[in-house]
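hey m, so remember when u said the tokens were messed up on ur end? i reran from scratch. heres the input so u can diff it against urs
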Amino acid sequence: MNLSLIFVSSHTVNSVSMRILPVLLYLQLAFMPFLVSAQFPQHKMTEQEKLLMPQYLREARSHSNRFSVPFSAVRASAEWEEIDALTITWTGFQSILKEIVRAAAVETRVIIVCSDSNTVKNYLTSNGVSLTNTEYLIAPFNSIWCRDYGQWNVYTNDVDTLALVDWIYNRPRAKDDSVPASVQRHTGLPMYTMTQAPFDLVHTGGNFMTDGWGTGFSSRLILDENSGKTESEIDSLMHRFMGINRYIKMSNLPYDQIHHIDMHMKLLDEETILVGEYPPGVADGPQIEANLQYVLNNFNSVFGTPYKVIRIPMPPDNFNAYPNTGGDYRTYTNATFVNKTVLVPTYEERHDTTALRIWRESLPGYNIVGINCNSIIPSLGAIHCITKEVASSDPLLISHQAYRDAIASTSAYQIDSRILHRSGISSANVWYRTDTTQLYSSVAMTLTDTLLNLWTGFIPQQNPGSTVYYYIEASSISGKTQTRPLPAPAAYWKFNIILNTEINNSISSVIFEVADIFPNPSKGITCIPVQSENIRQFEVGLYNIHGQKISDIFTGQISGEKKLFFDSRELASGVYFIRIQDLEHSILKKIIVR
């Protein structure tokens, strides 16, 4: 459509044109969303695109020249690991893209997929952005959402050869789906492709996270979009191509529309989950909490200990509306690690100050850069959705579980870390201090487990009331030196030395309690929190409104707090009851299934 036809010159207006003008203006407004969508495809799949998916998938699976399978074990890297480059696609929302380039190019190369490099360079320089560390990849594309269609990173033998991985993009946008191949040619890295049977997989980058040690997270969208495969078959593919040996899948959320987990959560390290939090009962809050409790009650971190959880607000939009009432899906979890910097979406100062404080407290020493995302968030995406990493081709991997607070004693504090480099590790040290105005002191680490590449050092005993700040530094035989946290010594872990105090083990006089079931209404993983003062035998069942048992949820002993789960997706909409009973008492809870 030629929009110039809509505007009427003031010099030729007559009575006829004055009557036509409102109609033409209406048509302009009516067709503008389609015109904008054609120029900047939205994150969510359109109804028209849904009709195109079958043909698109057939064509995507027919690209025989893209077929490549790993023949040895691989490890998918975590986002906080060192990267060699960050990729973006230069199309709409350039005011955001330029700020990504401004901040990221200080840390690493920025590969800009574009159709005209001169246009990009002129825009950047006219906005005061240096072109240093920028590269321009002229390649076809459809949209800005490179997180979803971009390449993934894996290593053979944990830290040896870097390779890229390409899935079938879950949108019928063939040019977007070709971008990983363009990045592969640009970087010269090998690439494994999951495009042909029996290795084909439809997936999207915003719906996948990994801890770097074989645990993956997604919503159940991964099952919905691969309905021709069993869950076991999907898990096998993710293990072979991504090294994922434990694939955690959570219920889709009712209001996020695209079901990408990066819109409400983020892994900050191997054991810490940043989770978006709504006010009680609002929008996706209940289902997010149910999903989180499902994870916490069924899975531990790679260290064998419970995950740590940090909560960050999910703010309302400018009109104080949340997604369940038509508000934008504002989120602070949709952030991107770029080596020593983290790019975080921002919206309004009244909300941003709290969110940025939480980020800085969670990752002390990192450069936390806020980038205004008000223009893009109505399209259901922010910073993480429009960036993608190319991992380091020479990684020195340091993996460590942060030391917990210690009770004062005469013992030293044992610091363990897995440290790997393809050439081997020549030395490692723990640097520590108890006064942030003083220099760090170091203690040498020694290799204590050759199979795990585990190195151990001991921080000397410190006085009660002290706070110990520390980081780990290692050097490879080839001469590379790396720290963890990556921005150390500006960044660090810390623990407190506390006095031994008597623990109050008082027991509640209540026999057992059942807190509110959530989410309620439900359509997916649903949590039943039970608290028992001592070991008791319980039976928990699901009943319809006629009192007929639908299914058994749990039979067994409970002592202390336990969260039980059931999946309501297969239930018809309506009212149900959960009966929780021991040998003497019974509690009935009402649940509504959407």
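this time it looks ok to me. The chain has four domains: 3-39, 47-64+72-391, 397-498, 512-593. if urs says something different then somethings off w ur setup not the seq
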